[in-house]
């Protein structure tokens, strides 16, 4: 049966190339780091084409360096976590394997073991909406490191100074490994309370670039960070995911703000830490 499925997949690849259609590929697997905390919460797989929903976890294989398969690692919810364009899927680690005190954690422990190397493989049998399989399987290799139980501290972030009258990217050194979807959706830049149009791009897991649609101008800008922003282990700003009930903070402001200016002199390459303000 397995050989028949493989032959069918090869036939679809041949048929797609015959009619000039490109087969889909895996563009990225996030996080991109090759060392990830044992309490990581999510992986994301990005594809070049919209993909069918066909039980993603049948095509995701987690194996350690001893050849042992990772069992009961991912939370297999009945509905898969795809984006609107069907080009990116979220692989959610079972929260019970991340948060201590829950039944899954008490029975199975952490999903990953510190110091162990893992291989996350996306096999080539996934199909796009043209019924074409992936060109090839893709594997992300990483080593599990010590748990991350520190909330992101946005006051540690460092911001570059882009030049005025250019669309030079604003580079944000996050000083932490941040969930890339969180970083791309929970930040905004304003000037004089007006939204600055542009887009964010992750540079690895610890750096972020904002590319404005129009030239930077003189005056102060404000980077606003939603307090729901998370790192790789679902720690939100000033709030640890795996916290004790007694440590829960209910008075966290909805937004944090960092201010910065665009620079005028092309020779000025100094970077500075933005000033932190709390607000709404």
What can you see in these coordinates?
With 280 residues, this protein is mainly beta. 10% of the residues lie in helices and 31% in strands. It has three helices and 18 strands. The protein has a five-stranded antiparallel sheet with strand order 13-14-10-9-17. It has a five-stranded antiparallel sheet with strand order 12-11-15-16-18. The chain has a four-stranded antiparallel sheet with strand order 1-3-6-5, with no helix packed on it. A hairpin with a 3-residue loop joins β13 (198-203) and β14. The longest helix has 17 residues, at 2-18. The model is unreliable at 11-20 and 268-272 (pLDDT under 50).
- Main pleated sheet: 5 strands, antiparallel
| Structural class by secondary-structure content | mainly beta
Uncertain parts: 11-20, 268-272
Strand order of the largest sheet: 13-14-10-9-17
- Chain-averaged pLDDT: 86
Radius of gyration, Cα only, in angstroms?
Answer: 22 Å
Order of helices and strands: HEEEEEEHEEEEHEEEEEEEE
Strand-residue proportion: 25-35%
Number of strands: 18
What's the helical proportion of residues?
10-25%
Note the total helix count. Answer: 3
Instruction: Quote the distance from N terminus to C terminus.
Output: 58 Å
